[in-house]
């Protein structure tokens, strides 16, 4: 009796295990099936008449630039105004490559997919393979989408085809942010040339600008990023092209094969050798960089101009006398005619793409395009930027907005900000003087912005091997700046870039360029 | 002569015997059907999660496009293998992986044995338990924590160790951003994290050593070190060999997470290993086929290492793992 009872228990345990094992195995499959069939039923029902004014359920695979997703307060308003129900799947910005690639590989997408990494080979291949709707022919039916300029459309195209609604960003938003109070204390003028910038960095390092009697400040505070950190912006001041340059004969040169790039490296090297920059910049994260700057460890910050507002906010209570000045007109020569600033992805922040697996038919696509069009209205832009009037912000004179409650805004509104398909040209604007100034300077930057001529060109080698090859250059650049490489070693790194596939990239870009510019 | 041995048995006898044996086997299965039933979940687990996914390896012979699936993607033969073996990165990856692997085996592997022997000599029971608890703790921390702690210690601006060196008048050392220190830091972190935990199995092995043996050598006048050398070590030798082979099998997985956190532009030359490369090429840059190829190659190397060391162990008169 006892024996049988034991056996029975064992049997039950085993079958329990077995069931859970099977359940575990099938779970993911089941849910995706359910999702699919649900979707099918939905689109089947609405296939004939997808009423543009009917309430739509829209899922959106989106990228989150803040620490946590937003709460529902603002979302409810957006849903009401766009007559829709939005289901977000948020992907943290730091892991967007992995998550987007897995989503693409497993075909678990949403109605709208935010693709900010168009140079990623998986994303590019997915777009080229016809996974997403082509939208160019539909854009002109919607007032806000029709307003997207031809330049932007061309820049956002791949192989001449537009696979989504482009994010319209500023052409160039980088510049230098300097501690004005430190400059004043040391009797320095606002730098206009790279030499003056170097002099300021030297003075900030050596002349104790915070007056605490300790040798604890540096000029620059940089991070481990050769693109959005200091390097590329300084590069523009020396006249480095944005990624590629092309001459009249259609010969293309990568930026790191130019004299100007080497001048930039020399500038950084001088900063590093003399200790005018934080020595650990190759391993510093952006948050640490901003924290350190806010704590008064350094006086020069290079990055997006509107970061000045964040720096000032971060410094509250730590460096209350911090005064910041933004500079966007530095050149190596001092001539206004040499002014230039690099442009990140030619003003296209990516695409809002609509996968065919989710958006089944034209009617559904049209409804979603209408939704995107609505997102670009003044009203919803205001919601996604500042929140709800009276709750998150107040409007003063001349449509100037003051945020009432910074933490509440950060929690409920800020996460939406990076989802705005268009960022400029709205009637509401920030009343914060630094923000106003930053926006003015960024608008001014557009006049001097250097575009990347290879941005919308196709190169098979670049798609497959480009990012691996770029490591060679990135590594060599760091090593040169840190003094581990001599110039000839850097140059041989460039040669090995060419040998390992770089020359193919050059060739492919050149022929693609010729095809378009004939 | 040999034939004569066989003659008493004719074919019919053999057949009957086979039948008999089969019957016995069947009976034994029937008798122990509960036990066999209990194998089932594990069996299914391996089929579902270990063997079926292996079919996915075929995408390393394709230009795999998720949208088209395995059926629709283009077959490209050995294209990705050719690319892997002709890229200069390949030798860097192989060298780094093998060097770190060797360091793991040579520098790390003996340490837990030594520590276990030392702990075994601690006679005070309470004291021994306290030590064990303390040295097990690091094992439960994630690599993120351990790398951050290392960062706080070794960072060039404000790292504790570098500040100490500087205050003693020395030159600051770029532990984290140079090729010379990467391997030391890497193996140091492994030792710090895993040393205590790895002693467990050796301590267990030591406890079953026959105490009569100790008494016998004591009679012969052996001291503590002699006892260790002539009794304890030989007694736990099979455990050591088995663990060594298992370790060789798993060590090629050098720990993606660990290395990924340490990797930067300035130490890539010695820090990039197959695991990190597969991650960046496959998941970050989306070259699924190519990174599968790299993974497949790594798997083959690992298999060769395990089989080779197993064979070697058997040649040396040990049992081996299988």
TrEMBL record, chain B:
UniProt KW keywords: Membrane, Transmembrane, Transmembrane helix, Transport
Keyword Calcium included in the entry's annotation: no
Gene3D superfamilies for the chain: MetI-like (1.10.3720.10)
GO CC term (a single one): plasma membrane
Membrane topology: Multi-pass membrane protein
Entry's Gene Ontology BP terms: transmembrane transport
Family the entry assigns: Belongs to the binding-protein-dependent transport system permease family.
Protein name per UniProt: Protein lplB
């Amino acid at each position: 009796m006892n024996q049988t009872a034991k056996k029975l228990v064992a049997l039950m345990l085993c079958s329990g295990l077995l069931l859970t094992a099977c359940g575990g195995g099938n779970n993911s499959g089941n849910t995706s099936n359910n999702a699919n069939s649900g979707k099918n039923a939905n689109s089947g029902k609405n296939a004939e008449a997808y009423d543009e004014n009917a309430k739509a359920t829209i899922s959106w695979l989106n990228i989150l630039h803040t620490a946590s997703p937003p709460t529902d307060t603002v979302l409810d308003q957006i849903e009401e105004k766009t007559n829709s129900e939005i289901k977000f799947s948020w992907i943290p910005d730091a892991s967007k490559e992995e998550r987007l690639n897995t989503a693409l590989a497993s075909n678990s997408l949403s109605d709208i997919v935010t693709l900010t990494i168009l140079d990623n080979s998986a994303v590019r291949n997915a777009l080229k393979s016809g996974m997403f709707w082509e939208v160019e022919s539909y854009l002109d039916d919607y007032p806000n989408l029709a307003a997207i300029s031809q330049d932007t459309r061309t820049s956002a195209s791949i192989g001449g085809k537009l696979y989504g609604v482009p994010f319209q960003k500023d052409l160039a938003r980088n510049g230098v942010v300097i501690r004005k109070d430190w400059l004043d204390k040391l009797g320095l003028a606002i730098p206009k040339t790279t030499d003056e910038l170097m002099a300021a960095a030297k003075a900030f390092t050596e002349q104790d600008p915070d007056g605490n009697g300790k040798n604890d400040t540096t000029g620059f505070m940089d991070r481990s990023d050769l693109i959005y950190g200091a390097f590329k912006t300084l590069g523009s001041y020396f006249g480095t092209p944005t990624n590629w340059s092309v001459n009249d004969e259609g010969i293309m040169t990568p930026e790191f094969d130019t004299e100007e790039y080497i001048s930039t490296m020399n500038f950084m090297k001088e900063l590093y050798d003399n200790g005018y920059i934080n020595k650990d910049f190759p391993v510093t994260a952006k948050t640490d960089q901003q924290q350190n700057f806010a704590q008064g460890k350094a006086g020069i910050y290079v990055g997006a101009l509107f970061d000045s507002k964040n720096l000032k906010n971060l410094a509250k209570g730590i460096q209350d006398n911090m005064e910041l000045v933004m500079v966007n007109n530095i050149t190596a020569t001092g001539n206004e005619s040499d002014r230039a600033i690099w442009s990140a992805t030619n003003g296209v922040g990516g695409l809002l793409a609509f996968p065919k697996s989710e958006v089944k038919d034209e009617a559904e696509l049209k409804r979603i395009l209408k939704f995107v069009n609505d997102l670009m209205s003044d009203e919803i832009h205001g919601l996604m930027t500042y929140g709800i009037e009276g709750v998150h912000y107040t409007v003063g004179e001349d449509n100037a907005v003051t945020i009432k409650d910074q933490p509440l805004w950060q929690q409920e509104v800020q996460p939406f900000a990076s989802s705005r398909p268009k960022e400029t040209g709205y009637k509401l604007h920030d009343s914060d003087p630094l923000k106003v100034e930053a926006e003015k300077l960024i608008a001014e930057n557009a006049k001097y912005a250097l575009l990347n001529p290879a941005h919308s060109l196709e190169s098979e080698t670049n798609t497959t091997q480009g990012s691996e090859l770029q490591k060679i250059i990135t590594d060599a650049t760091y090593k040169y700046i840190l003094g581990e490489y001599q110039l000839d070693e850097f140059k041989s790194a460039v040669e090995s870039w060419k040998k390992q596939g770089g020359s193919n990239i050059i060739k492919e870009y050149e022929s693609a360029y010729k095809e378009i510019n004939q | 002569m040999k034939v004569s041995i066989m003659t008493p048995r004719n074919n019919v006898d053999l057949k009957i015997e086979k039948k008999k044996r089969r019957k016995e086997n069947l009976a034994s299965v029937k008798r122990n059907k509960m036990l066999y039933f209990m194998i089932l979940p594990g069996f299914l687990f391996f089929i579902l999660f270990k063997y079926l996914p292996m079919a996915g390896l075929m995408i390393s012979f394709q230009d795999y496009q998720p949208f088209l699936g395995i059926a629709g993607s283009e077959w490209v033969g050995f294209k990705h293998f050719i690319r892997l073996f002709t890229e200069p990165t390949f030798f860097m990856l192989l060298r780094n992986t093998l060097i770190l692997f060797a360091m793991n085996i040579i520098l790390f592997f003996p340490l837990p044995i030594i520590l276990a022997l030392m702990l075994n000599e601690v006679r005070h029971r309470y004291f021994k338990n306290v030590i064990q608890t303390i040295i097990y703790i690091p094992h439960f921390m994630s690599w993120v924590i351990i790398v951050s702690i290392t960062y706080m210690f070794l960072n060039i601006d404000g790292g504790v160790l570098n500040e100490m060196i500087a205050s003693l008048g020395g030159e600051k050392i770029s532990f984290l951003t140079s090729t010379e220190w990467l391997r030391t830091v890497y193996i140091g972190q492994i030792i710090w994290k895993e040393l205590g935990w790895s002693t467990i199995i050796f301590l267990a092995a030591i406890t079953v050593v026959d105490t009569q043996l100790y008494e016998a050598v004591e009679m012969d006048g052996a001291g503590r070190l002699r006892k260790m050398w002539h009794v304890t070590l030989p007694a736990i030798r099979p455990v050591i060999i088995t663990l060594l082979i298992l370790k060789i099998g798993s060590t090629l997985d050098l720990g993606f997470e660990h290395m990924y956190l340490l990797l930067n532009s300035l130490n890539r030359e010695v820090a990039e290993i197959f695991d990190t490369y597969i991650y960046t090429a496959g998941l970050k840059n989306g070259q699924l086929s190519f990174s599968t190829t790299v993974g497949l190659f790594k798997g083959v190397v690992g298999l060769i290492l395990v089989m080779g060391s197993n064979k070697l162990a058997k040649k040396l008169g040990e049992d081996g793992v299988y």
